[in-house]
Amino acid sequence: MTAQKDLVERVREALSDRDPREVPMFGGVSFMVEGRMVVAARRDGALLLRIDPTAAKDLLARPGCHPALMGTDRPMGDGWISVEQAALQGAGLDAWLEPALSFHEAQDAK
Q1: Cα separation of 59 and 81, whole Å?
Q2: Where is the TfoX N-terminal domain (predicted)?
Q3: SS3 helix, strand, coil % of the chain, rounded to 5?
Q4: How confident is the model over 33-57, as a mean pLDDT?
Q5: 51-83, pLDDT tens digit by residue?
Q6: How many domains does the chain have?
Q7: Quick check: helix, strand or coil at residue 100?
Q8: Rounded Cα distance, 58 and 73, in Å
Q9: Fewer beta carbons below 10 Å: N end or C end of the chain?
Q10: Cβ contacts of 26 within 8 Å, gap of 6 or more
Q11: pTM greater than 0.85 (yes/no)
């Protein structure tokens, strides 16, 4: 199984209670919850997350996290981060889904 397929399966399982819709975009498979993207499993096995821009600095300090890029050199902005495959092993995936889901829920509250 490829790194992307493995990540897709793991994200699908982790979000199963939220009835996500899977959409091909951002060079991978994006998971939409209530019509908005929460995360995407990228071809290289990395996870792209939509986060609260005010949390970016703290999240980027975690190992394996980088600013998300579109292509090889165009930053996606403070509300987007990318997490390397190695940082997603074991409980790592749940730890990274949490800030994306928290941001999603905060948007619902507005």
Answers
A1: 8
A2: 24-102
A3: 40, 30, 30
A4: 95
A5: 999 999 999 999 999 999 987 789 999 999 999
A6: 1
A7: helix
A8: 22
A9: C
A10: 40, 42, 48, 70
A11: yes
Domain holding 10: CATH number?
Answer: 3.90.1150.30
> Which residues are within 8 A (CB) of 17 and not within 5 positions of it... i.e. 6 or more apart?
none
Say which residues have a Cβ less than 8 Å from residue 15's Cβ, sequence separation at least 6.
31, 33, 38, 97
Q: Residue 14 sits in which domain range?
A: 1-109
At position 83, the amino acid (one-letter code) is V
Residue from 33, 47, 39, 37 nearest 3 by CA: 47
Sequence-distant (6+) residues with CB within 8 A of 27 are: 40, 42, 43
Take residue 102 and report the two structure tokens written for it.
């928290």
pLDDT single digits (tens) 3-29: 889 999 999 999 999 999 999 987 789
- Between the alpha carbon of residue 94 and those of residues 14, 25, 60, 77, 99, the distances in Å are 7, 22, 17, 23, 9
